Amino acid sequence: MILAISRFVAVSVAVFAGHAMSAECDNPTTLNFLLIPQSNADKGVSAMQPLLAELEKETGKKVKTNIPPSYGAVVESLLAESTDIAMLGPASFASAMSNGAAIQVFASYSAKAGPFQDEGPYYHSLLVVRNRSQFTSIEKLKGSTLSLVDPLSTSGSVIPRHLFSPMIGGSLEKYFGRIVYTGGHDKSAAAVLDGRADAAFVSTLLLSEFIREGKGIENDYRILWKSEPIPLDPFVYRTRLCAPIKEKIRKVFLTATENSHKATLQWLNASRIVAFSGENYRTISQIMQSLPK
Length: 293
Fold this sequence. Notes:
Blueprint: H1 2-23, E1 30-35, H2 41-47, H3 49-59, E2 62-66, H4 71-79, E3 85-87, H5 90-98, E4 103-111, E5 122-123, E6 125-130, E7 145-148, H6 154-164, H7 172-175, E8 178-181, H8 185-193, E9 199-203, H9 204-212, E10 221-226, E11 230-231, E12 235-238, H10 243-254, H11 262-268, E13 270-275, H12 282-290
Parallel strand pairs: 1-2, 1-3, 7-8, 7-9
Antiparallel strand pairs: 3-12, 4-12, 4-13, 5-11, 6-9, 6-10
């Protein structure tokens, strides 16, 4: 009788422990994958399909892709925990983390060299003007029209506001006569070419893509300022996802090669996807925390 009771208690404890463990993680039937609304995001949806199809096969779950209308909407989605996996910009990741999002970085990618882009998992913010314009120095830009991308764009707004502003002795608003947000690096690059903006802060990675797509040539632009290296876009997943799911996500992303996932890596202009962590974004996180709320 005592032995039977002991077995009952042991089984009950084991069942309770199992329920408690399962309650500590999420095991959704569908994995929601989010892309930041950068200039080539629509192409990214189709380019990512082979990799996401493999993720469906590996996890046994449907993967649904979404592109929010703005960087702010990206952060809101992460805070609401309605996104399971995402490719973010460094600043949108830092903003989400500073607001309490339960996410973890697991990967980034190593970019191939381009017209303005160095090879490796880093890029730069550039201040560019049209090569044949009168703007041959930063000083000559005072009172001109500046194009930014989005308030939460790392290279198209955040880095310039934090690292470039001290060079001109004040805010961008006080130095430039007018500031416009275009919503995309390609749109900012185009605005400089067609005269709607005198200068723009853009990403080396996305300006290189703009050139590769034949929308301009390298000699169209003059660089007046270049930032220190910035880590490339992080891939993140929700912290509360069950460990086996996170392990399978890492496996699928980190084993992608140019042979197995050519379209995905071509879209990223990358040689491979590499393991990364939140520690790689410490500097940008500190910058975001120092900015006025």
